[in-house]
Amino acid sequence: xxxxxxxxxxxxxxxxxxxxxxxxxxxxxxxxxxxxxxxxxxxxxxxxxxxxxxxxxxxxxxxxxxxxxxxxxxxxxxxxxxxxxxxxxxxxxxxxxxxxxxxxxxxxxxxxxxxxxxxxxxxxxxxxxxxxxxxxxxxxxxxxxxxxxxxxxxxxxxxxxxxxxxxxxxxxxxxxxxxxxxxxxxxxxxxxxxxxxxxxxxxxxxxxxxxxxxxxxxxxxxxxxxxxxxxxxxxxxxxxx
Length: 241
Prior knowledge:
Layout: E1 5-6, H1 7-15, H2 19-27, E2 31-33, E3 36-37, E4 44-45, E5 51-53, E6 66-71, H3 81-91, E7 112-114, E8 122-128, H4 131-137, E9 145-153, H5 158-162, E10 169-170, E11 173-174, E12 178-182, E13 187-193, H6 199-206, E14 210-219, E15 222-223, E16 232-234
Parallel strand pairs: 8-14
Antiparallel strand pairs: 1-4, 2-3, 2-5, 6-8, 6-16, 7-8, 9-13, 9-14, 10-11, 12-13, 14-15
Helix pairs in contact: 1-2
C-alpha cells in the first residue's frame, strides 16, 4: 500500500520547482487537491488524488494584513495566537467584505489585538500582523479618535457632559478627555482618544450615569459600517486609519 505524501513535496516534483516555491504556492491559495483548495504545505495527499496549480499562480510570500472585527458583547477575545486563530476561523469572514482580498488561513496566523475592548463591550476591534499598524495605533502622541454609542441609565445635563471634555478623575485615575452628546433619552455618543478597557464605564459614572452597554463604531477614519457581529473583514489596500 502506498503511503500518503506531503503536498509540498509532490507539488515541487510536479512543477519542477523548489520545495520552498511549492510551499509559497500552497500558502498563497493557489493549489487544489481533489478539487478542494488546500493552504497547508504539510497536507498529506492520498494516492490517486489530483493536484492542480491554479492559473496565474505566483510563488511569493503572503503579505501581512489587518483585520476589522465586530466583537460581540460579553466576549473576551483569546490572546494566545493559536486560540485566536481557531476563534477567527470559527467566527467567519464577512461575505460582503469590500476589500476584495481573498481570505487565506495565513491571514489569521499571529494576529495581534490592538487597543482591545472591555469584555462586556461590543464593536470594532482591530487585529493586525503589520508592525506599522501596531506602531501607529499605539502612538499615544498622535492618538486616533474612537467613537462609541453608549446605552445608559440615569440623567446628566449638558453642563455635566461638558465636564468630560475638561478632564476628570475616577477613583484617583485620570480619565481621557471625551466629547459627549445625547442621541436619545438613554443613548449617548462619546468620542475620545487613548481609551483603555473600562474607561467608558468610568466616564459615565463620573457624571452620574450607569453604563448598560456600549459599542465602538469608529476608529480614526474607519467606521464599523455594516460588518455583522461576530464576523471580520480585511482592511483594504486604500483604507487608512
